[in-house]
Amino acid sequence: MGCAGSRDKVDETSKKIRKPKAWKHSEAITRAQLTQMREEFWDTAPHYGGRKEIWDALRAAAEADLSLAQAIVDSAGVIVQNPDLTVCYDERGAKYELPKYVLSEPTNLIRES
């Protein structure tokens, strides 16, 4: 058996990450508005706690394709609670919550021609 105790969380880091399920914003938005929302989130998120390097890793993962995102969170020591990255923790137990709009596009995104 050994003394696993609170180390049971270790296998949670191996959760395979995936994009969030399809979602709809409260109103149809343009890509520019989505980009603006994302910028505002990433600019303010670190002020709510957690470590800047973890926020940086989560941003890089959110903006990368899935296999690269997996490598980023694994190497940063991020503990993935929800496979879509909406809830993560660092080794110290600090919680990081990501809104779906930084992870994927809404189904009602206005495609500008």
From TrEMBL:
| Compositionally biased residues, Basic and acidic residues | 1-15
Task: Identify the domain of life.
Answer: Eukaryota
Query: Region (Disordered) spans which residues?
Result: 1-22
Matching entries from Gene3D superfamilies are given as: Ub domain-containing protein, DC-UbP/UBTD2, N-terminal domain
Q: Which InterPro entries match?
A: DC-UbP/UBTD2_N, DC-UbP/UBTD2_N_sf, UBTD1/2
Record organism: Rehmannia glutinosa
Q: Domain DC-UbP/UBTD2 N-terminal: where? A: 14-112
Q: What is this protein called?
A: DC-UbP/UBTD2 N-terminal domain-containing protein
Q: Which PANTHER family match?
A: UBIQUITIN DOMAIN CONTAINING 1 PROTEIN-RELATED (PTHR13609)
